[in-house]
Amino acid sequence: MQPGAEVRKENKLLKATAVPIVLTGLGVYTALSNRVINRYEIKEERDEHFPHFHSKVDNYLIHTPAVIVYGLNLAGVKGKNDLRNRTLLLVKSEMIMAALTFSLKSITHEVRPDGSDHQSFPSGHTAQAFATATFLSKEYGDRSVWYSVGAYGMATTVGAMRMLNNRHWVSDVFAGAGIGILSTNIAYLTHRYRWKNKNSNLTVIPSYNKGPGVYIGFRLK
Please, which residues have CB within 8 angstroms of residue 163's CB and are 6 or more apart in sequence? Predict the structure, then answer.
């Protein structure tokens, strides 16, 4: 490998991991210490000003960026990748995100603010939201910065709503955001782009089963 190629590879890795590692680290630190951000004070503010807040909008916003990607594709707006590679990237991102999120939930065993269970850290909804937000940003962010702004705006709204719904601490949200971004960045960084869209046997159909989703099918020859 040429020296220049090695530097570019290191720069890509740094760019892909720097922000999510900082966010995840902030989440861990906030869960362990109240010196920088006091998660209990934030919950007290929530209990004082929004004691009866309850909304299910966050259950739908977590998938919205991915739905937008396929909607734009159906509308003829080309993204960064063809249908097959795009879908494989999304699947890889989801697998990485799920593995990291549920492993940490099992290890940390953190109680939720509402006391309902011990699955608080990190926030799975926030991780999902930022994973799909990064997916939209990767596919269409080069076309317009507003795709990225809108995507991360929705993801941030999900994080805020998880706290307003009294389901997560701010530390859970920070860590979830970092994991979501990292998962999609790693999926794109490691993808080999060996699949072409010509004569594709991949089928992608929007679906709805207790929430919006995507049906993915492969036809074997």
Answer: 42, 43, 46, 113, 169, 170, 173
The residue to which tokens 């740094």 are assigned: 14
* pTM of the complete model: 0.86
Q: Which two structure tokens, joined as six digits, stand for 143?
A: 């076309």
Between 197 and 14, residue with greater pLDDT: 14
* Interior angle at CA 134, CA 130 and CA 138, nearest 5: 175
DSSP assigned state of 121:
S
Backbone CA torsion sign across 51, 57, 59, 65: negative
Compute the radius of gyration of the chain from its Cα atoms. Answer: 19
Domain ranges in the chain?
12-32+57-193
142-193 confidence digits (pLDDT tens):
999 999 999 999 999 999 999 999 999 999 999 999 999 999 999 999 998 7
User: What's the CA gap between 169 and 122, in Å, rounded?
Assistant: 9
